[in-house]
Amino acid sequence: MTVSALSNSIMNAAVFHGHDRITIERVAMPEVASGEVLLRVSRTALCGSDFKLWHKGAEFTAGHEIFGVVEQPGHPMHGKRCAVYIPLHCDRCAACRRGDTQMCLEMSSLIGWNRPGGYAEYVPVPENCLLPVPDDIEDSLAPLLLDVIGTSGHAVRFISRIVPPRDAGPVLVTGAGPVGLGVVLALKSFGYDDIRVADPNAARLNIAQSFGAKPHPVGDASQRFALIVECSGAHAARNLGIEVVLPRGALVLVGENAAPWSIEEGKVFRRKDFYMVRTFYFPVADFIANVDLLRRYKDAYRILVDGEFGLPELPQNFARFAAGELIKPVLALD
């Protein structure tokens, strides 16, 4: 079927109504603009950042950890297996020319947020957001190249220039969700060899230990660290990080939280030099390094994908995911 024929047809997609309600409905195929291709979605990983859409509703189809096959006859990428880079980017502005495509100064749109995403059978994708996936990467692991590996890998690459492994000593990771566990593996790959993880979820803490990390008590302020990677998004964890980061150390904020966060400028905050760093997603050029990370720790990443199901089962499995019963479930549309 040609793209023009597809544009006149309908597809199945998840609709996020808000109030924790999702339905699967027949909707019009998305429009494919100039400079875009149509992607037949194969896998979309569920992400905790979608909880706000689950609660409040979504204007566009949600889902942003997307992998599929290009369906654009006549296009050079037709039939290619690709992951989808979330941030739209112009490739021309100062940030893009510097390589910071995730922070484009001209375009501020995210696939699955400000335009249709991957909890559907098809999604339109700008050509420069296509990330070809090598054939040795299995479909169910391909979405991990984005948030789980890409976001965590970028955070560790960024901070390794400020607190290199030789100067770090023990490193604290707060939050053992998918990105926090990804940070553990990224830290290992960079040579950080004493990694502590704090999380109240015993099962996730066990996975972190299987990756080579050591458990650290949640909320414990008895030890100070030169490097803290905060992946939970919890304000309490952020405040603790400010308290226990060593002078000239770094607190890296990776976890997200849309609620206002107030910092008390007490003596703990005022009386030391330290870095407080926020990192976001990853630059396009990091994708090759992301693939290398996946290849290096493929068996470990497989542990994270603990559910796979079709579109009709998305509503109940999203609820299970939100309840913490699943770590990184994957929607499988083929």
Question: What is the secondary structure topology, with strand pairs?
Answer:
Layout: H1 3-6, E1 10-18, E2 21-28, E3 36-45, H2 51-56, E4 65-70, E5 81-84, H3 94-98, E6 122-126, E7 130-132, H4 147-160, H5 165-168, E8 171-174, H6 178-190, E9 195-198, H7 202-210, E10 214-215, E11 225-230, H8 235-244, E12 245-253, H9 267-270, E13 275-278, H10 287-296, H11 298-304, E14 308-309, H12 314-322, E15 330-332
Parallel strand pairs: 8-9, 8-11, 9-10, 11-12, 12-13, 14-15
Antiparallel strand pairs: 1-2, 3-4, 3-6, 3-15, 4-5, 5-7
Helix pairs in contact: 4-6
Briefly say what this structure is.
With 334 residues, this protein is an alpha/beta fold. The chain folds into two domains: 3-140 and 305-332, Quinone Oxidoreductase, Chain A, domain 1 (Alpha-Beta Complex); 149-278, Rossmann fold (3-Layer(aba) Sandwich). The protein has helices spanning 3-6, 51-56, 94-98, 147-160, 165-168, 178-190, 202-210, 235-244, 267-270, 287-296, 298-304, 314-322; strands at residues 10-18, 21-28, 36-45, 65-70, 81-84, 122-126, 130-132, 171-174, 195-198, 214-215, 225-230, 245-253, 275-278, 308-309, 330-332.
Fold and architecture overview:
The protein folds into 2 domains: 3-140 and 305-332, Medium-chain alcohol dehydrogenases, catalytic domain (Quinone Oxidoreductase, Chain A, domain 1, Alpha-Beta Complex), CATH 3.90.180; 149-278, NAD(P)-binding Rossmann-like Domain (Rossmann fold), CATH 3.40.50.720. The protein contains 12 helices and 15 strands. It has helices spanning 3-6, 51-56, 94-98, 147-160, 165-168, 178-190, 202-210, 235-244, 267-270, 287-296, 298-304, 314-322; strands spanning 10-18, 21-28, 36-45, 65-70, 81-84, 122-126, 130-132, 171-174, 195-198, 214-215, 225-230, 245-253, 275-278, 308-309, 330-332. Helix 6 links the parallel strand 8 (171-174) and strand 9 (195-198).
